[in-house]
Amino acid sequence: MAPRYLESSDSRLNPLVLASHMIDMPSTAMTTQASDPVDEAVRLHDLAVAAREDRRHDEAERLARESLTIFESADPESPDVANVLLCLAGTHEDRADYAAAQSFLLGIRGTLAPFAASFLLGQYEPRLVLLVGMSFMAAGAVLMFGAVREPAPVLEAAPAA
Question: Which residues of 61-94 are buried (b: 16+ CB within 10 A; e: fewer)?
Fold first, then answer.
């Protein structure tokens, strides 16, 4: 089955027409930086979506805000503005999920810890209970260190020379 752009009646989507136009373009038009502000906003939005999928929330928010600024200055009534706002809202929702999970787990720990400690103190020597408690705290610190880390830096493609 042929790709959709080959079936399209729109000649602008035909790869042969696109290639013939690219031959006539000056080399500055073929760089990675978009010359049209809307194209740049689309590129930033795509990067924001990718960053959100990779759970790099700060970067996703920054890219979405930049894209939103460009889209709003070009056409505030554009459906693209709504798409970027949805991405931005999703980033905030993802962060809220982490905060809610952390609060829930801290609440469970705070509620169950006294009961577990009183049971263990009735069964074992206090030094052993202290050692077990400290072991759990150390294991939790190691797990948190592994879970909370700096995101990998994003490598951007170098402009074509």
Answer: bbbbebbbebbbeeeeeeebbebbeebbebbeee
